[in-house]
Design a protein that fits this description.
With 723 residues, the protein is α+β, with helices and mostly antiparallel strands. The protein has 26 helices and 24 strands.
């Protein structure tokens, strides 16, 4: 479908009709792609129509709809911790089995408990032998589907609308990640009405349990970008998925293109009469919820064994990581009769496939410099075909891992794909050593800038803050939302400006102008030219002046948080800016001055003092000042202890407050002179507990720490003149 250009002369009624049409069309496109496996629109068409819808909605705020496709990502990034929610129906794990023989034994126990009379049969079949199939009398029907390697989630729909998303956590309670889950296009914001009468209408309440996962193509794309920038690769798609979903910014979640597949249910109200899991899966598909297209209802354990064997050869071609198959008793009444153990349902088991391993030769090790100066080793091996693809490189993690495994250049090594995705070296084949193998030595100088290398535990660091390999990533951090917040300077524009030689220092961002960018374009810089083609609002020439001008006045705290100083994040930057009111005052600080600050231990104070004495610190502050950047502190001056109920005390905030979000209450407490900590200890003065307060409240009660409700907080803030 071609993009429709909005007509500025259309009436409000026409715009409303077009908004309704686009919302319905884009919702159907999402459902068709993720739930029905029948896409009818390209990504480019979808993005163009989404942009048109966003433009129309901006012009008509009175037509706002929280379930519009444009509302998947919105609002500011979360500050503080995720709130916790208790599951109304526990999310239990499933017991694992590693052979067909073990699966048959599980099935026999289920059949015996149900009185189905399934016998043991005869024939071969030992642990791990998928071909050893022996007959059993018919027993309860089964259902099998792939065990996707992702993050378990519970999605709660009320009257068809997604209202809550909670991770599995410990099975009893998990993290509330609704804003992030809304950013995942595979998850419907609203259920669609069933097409056939047998399923009834939209349920009053439905909790869908499933797995959020990162598709292989997305994992490979992200790791390729990390490798390009010298960052340590993600170990596997699951780790990357979990890290993404726990990111505090839904925009980052949206950019990672996670997906989802349903596999179970929690609480339900107003559902049709469903006799079996296979019927529930069909029902979810009618509602527009993605379910697995692989597996299904099986009549016998023999059929389950054949399905597991067949799937073993197919899983490598899938676009998502799978480490097994979940086999369950299909009928709900039989599940109920079998019941649960303390940790797992008795009516389900997960068959786990062994990881494929191959032997090859470790030819060389390269050391790469990433964000923060971390130097990580990457192995280059003789190419070998493993689990569906040719492997040549693998991360070796750090020097301690190399030494622990006693790896050497020239070794024959065993390689496997962790999580079936990322290659890793498992061990050396020591018995094949000839004596010509060479030890792997850590670098004594940075492989990029030849600067000094420092070791901290198992990690190696380049200590040169202006190392060219580090600068690109440091600059992306510097201009980011929580630092200088230079809107529009995304990763691709930063890369283009650095590659063109237009930005060589942090201060260059504030002195760069449209003329310089235009000159680079005139010289044929392809990266900048491609950005320039993207149209209004994306033009590099406009961004570098207007966004940077706004960022000049953010103050010392944001500058310190953005410079990438070792051990200095947002919290430490605030502490420094409260005590030292300008960059000049900070440069004059001694190690003893820093040790006197809250939360500044010996290691942090020594590290920051060393940086302040460096030529890098002097140069960075001087260049920023020359560029007109405000280097004065905007933090409230310290409040003397005893001046109010907060000054000089340590507070912890937990649960959900009605009047404040976590970031706002933290800022108010700090303005009142309090320190806000993330965990409860004997040093905690008071805990502010909102709704759904969890383990921190319990810890406070155990330690006898004073507990405030929101009313007490508001009362004391008012006394301090802050509410």
């Amino acid at each position: 479908m071609a993009k429709t250009t909005p007509n500025t002369s259309t009436t409000a009624t026409g715009d409303a009709a077009r908004i309704h049409e686009l919302r319905e069309l884009l919702t159907r496109a999402n459902t068709a792609y993720y739930a029905d496996a029948a896409p009818f629109m390209s990504d480019q068409e979808f993005d163009a129509l989404l942009a048109e819808l966003a433009s129309l909605e901006d012009a008509h705020p009175e037509l706002f709809d929280a379930n519009s496709p444009t509302q998947r990502v919105g609002g500011a990034a979360l500050e503080g911790e995720f709130a916790t929610r208790r599951h109304r129906v526990p999310m239990l794990s499933v017991d694992n089995t590693y052979s067909v023989e073990e699966m048959r034994a599980w099935y026999q126990r289920c059949a015996d408990a149900l009185g189905a009379g399934a016998g043991g049969g005869t024939g071969g079949g030992t642990g791990g032998d998928l071909g050893g199939l022996f007959a059993l009398p018919a027993g309860p029907a089964l259902f099998a589907d792939p065990k996707v390697d992702g993050l378990a989630i519970s999605l709660r729909y009320e009257d068809g609308a997604l209202v809550e998303a909670v991770t599995r956590g410990d099975g009893e309670k998990g993290d509330l990640v609704t804003a992030n889950v809304r950013a995942i296009r595979a998850i419907p914001l609203a259920l669609r009405a069933p097409k056939t009468a047998q399923w009834g209408g939209i349920p009053r309440v439905l909790e869908v349990r499933g797995e959020i996962f990162m598709p292989v193509r997305e994992f490979e794309r992200i790791n390729a970008e990390r490798e390009k920038h010298g960052e340590q690769l993600f170990a596997n798609a699951r780790n990357s998925c979990v890290g993404t979903l726990k990111n505090k910014d839904p925009k980052v979640v949206a950019s990672r293109r996670l997906s989802f597949v349903a596999h179970g249910r929690g609480e339900g109200e107003g559902l049709p009469a469903l006799a079996a899991h296979s019927e529930f899966v069909a029902y979810l598909k009618e509602l527009g919820v993605p379910v697995s297209a692989i597996g299904g209802r099986l009549a016998s354990v023999d059929e389950a064994a054949r399905t597991i064997e067949d799937f073993a050869g197919k899983r490598e071609s899938l676009d998502f990581a799978v480490d097994g198959m979940v086999v369950r008793i299909d009928r709900f009444d039989e599940q109920e009769k079998l019941g649960f153990t303390a940790k797992s349902p008795r009516w389900a088991v997960a068959f786990k496939y062994p990881a494929e391993q191959k032997e090859t030769v470790l030819e060389k090790v390269e050391w790469q410099v990433g964000k923060g100066g971390t130097i990580t080793p990457r192995a280059t091996m003789r190419p070998v075909f493993v689990a569906g693809s040719t492997v040549k490189h693998a991360t070796l993690h750090n020097i301690e891992e190399i030494q622990r495994r006693d790896l050497r250049i020239g070794d024959h090594v065993i390689v496997e794909k962790a999580g079936e995705i990322i290659p890793q070296v498992v061990r050396a084949v020591v018995e094949k050593r000839t004596g010509d193998e060479k030890p792997i030595e850590p670098p004594t100088a940075c492989p990029v800038c030849q600067g000094e290398v420092e070791r901290e535990g198992p990690k190696l660091f380049c200590t040169n803050p202006m190392c060219s390999a580090r600068f690109r990533e440091r600059l992306k951090w510097f201009v980011g939302r929580d630092q200088m917040n230079i809107d529009g300077l995304g990763e691709e524009i930063v890369d283009a400006l650095v590659d063109a030689g237009l930005v060589k220092d942090f201060a260059d961002v504030f002195t760069l102008d449209a003329v310089a960018v235009a000159r680079a374009l005139a010289k044929g810089d392809k990266a900048l030219a491609e950005i320039e083609k993207k149209g209004p609002g994306k033009r590099a020439t406009g961004i570098v002046e207007s966004a940077a001008d706004a960022a000049r006045h953010r103050g010392l705290t944001r500058v310190l948080a953005g410079l990438g100083i070792k051990h200095v994040g947002a919290s430490a930057a605030k502490t420094l800016a409260r005590r030292f009111r300008s960059a000049d005052e900070l440069l004059a600080a001694t190690e003893e001055d820093l040790l006197a600050l809250n939360d500044f231990g010996e290691v942090t104070a020594k590290s920051v003092a060393a940086w302040l004495r460096s030529t890098d610190a002097t140069h960075v502050f001087a260049a920023l000042a020359k560029a007109g950047v405000d280097l004065a502190s905007h933090e409230p001056k310290p409040v003397e202890a005893g001046a109010n109920a907060f000054a000089g005390k340590t507070f912890v905030v937990t649960g959900t407050l009605e009047r404040f979000d976590r970031g706002a209450v933290t800022e108010l407490l700090e303005r009142a002179g309090a320190k806000v900590a993330g965990s409860v200890s004997k040093k905690t003065s008071a805990v502010v507990a909102g709704a759904e307060a969890g383990s921190k409240l319990a810890k406070a009660q155990e330690l006898g720490v004073e507990i405030w409700d929101e009313a007490r907080l508001v009362e004391e803030l008012a006394k301090a003149g802050l509410a």
